[in-house]
Design a protein that fits this description.
This protein is α+β, with helices and mostly antiparallel strands. It has helices at 77-85, 108-117, 181-186, 195-203, 234-247, 265-277, 289-292; strands spanning 3-5, 9-14, 21-28, 35-39, 48-50, 56-57, 64-66, 72-74, 91-95, 119-121, 127-131, 135-139, 142-147, 155-162, 170-176, 192-194, 216-219, 222-223, 254-261, 282-286.
Length: 309
């Protein structure tokens, strides 16, 4: 059955790119509502923004969604990943500014808040998107693909990255995201960047709220952030976290295999556009008990939250 959060939970922090303070509150929502964002600092007009693939506006370094009135909210990928990874199907996410707070750079603060609040089961079945044939997008040496599941176990993910900085280098990871894998393996993995890119980002008005506490900064073979990586392959794990958050904008859990090679936010969104443009590539299915048990978030408990949080 679909779920929503039992009670409201709030998070305070600053935006990674804007540097502006923000309060984000996740509230319960009725069945079949899906995930919506609301700008509480906007007084006039339409303040509701659907967390949906066709509301995404191209923006460098983050995922930005915008409604038809031009009201937007950016850097939604980490909270979307947390909602999907905890199995929340319906919620209203209120925010008093243009960008979600970055917190520690991962999804784990959102995960802890969601699981502390608890989930309420709703009287409506979960509907999922089953991938029926491969769909691929390519750009600038990278590619992303959705294809039918080879395991029949919810969402499988394969991701590969290749960075010149030796602190990251080439990393590849394969995961099945059933039964709390996201919470255990990915939720505490932080956003990262190269020290050589920081000045350029800040001159472009980005990363104004970035610190060593909310991002992992690397310089060649060195990790500049205190404490280093939480996992030796934290970088590729964070890319998988981002991908789950961006795939959650499909509007329903995906049953299939996602593969990303040097992929990012824009490419994953382009993949969803390509998927939904091909009516033969997907179908909506109503999940039976066995299928629902393979979805991200099914059966997650607080003890699975990584201790680093």
């Amino acid at each position: 059955m679909q779920t929503t959060i039992r009670s409201a939970i709030s998070f305070d922090g600053i935006g990674l790119h804007s540097g502006r303070p923000a309060r984000l509150t996740i509230r319960p929502a009725v069945a079949h509502r899906g995930i919506w964002f609301k700008r509480t600092d906007v007084d006039l007009g339409d303040t509701m923004i659907p967390a949906r693939w066709d509301a995404v506006v191209r923006s460098p370094l983050c995922t930005l969604i915008q409604n038809r009135a031009g009201v937007s909210v950016s850097t939604v990928e980490h909270v979307m990943a947390a909602l999907a990874g905890c199995g929340v199907h319906n919620a209203l996410v209120e925010i008093d500014g243009p960008e979600a707070p970055i917190l520690d750079g991962s999804s784990v603060p959102f995960v802890r808040g969601i699981l502390d609040a608890g989930l309420r089961v709703q009287g409506a079945p979960v509907r999922a998107i089953e991938i029926l044939k491969p769909v691929t997008v390519e750009t600038n040496g990278g590619w992303a693909r959705l294809s039918p599941s080879k395991t029949g176990q919810g969402l499988d993910m394969v991701f590969r990255i290749d960075f010149a900085d030796r602190a990251i280098g080439v990393q590849e990871k394969r995961l099945n995201l059933a039964n709390g894998t996201f919470v255990r393996e990915l939720s505490d993995c932080r956003t990262f960047c190269r020290a050589s890119d920081v000045d350029a980002m800040q001159k472009a008005g980005k990363a104004l709220g970035g610190t060593y506490e909310n991002a992992v900064v690397v310089d060649g073979d060195k990790v500049l952030s205190p404490g280093g990586f939480r996992h030796a392959d934290e970088a590729v794990r964070h890319k998988m976290l981002d991908a789950l958050g961006d795939l959650a904008l499909a509007g329903a859990p995906i049953l299939g295999l996602y593969e990303g090679h040097k992929a990012g936010h824009a490419m994953t969104n382009a993949l969803l556009h390509a998927l939904f443009e091909d009516a033969d590539a997907w179908r909506i299915v109503e999940c039976d008990t066995a299928t629902a048990a393979t979805l991200p978030g099914a059966g997650v408990v607080q003890d699975e939250i990584p201790a680093v949080a």
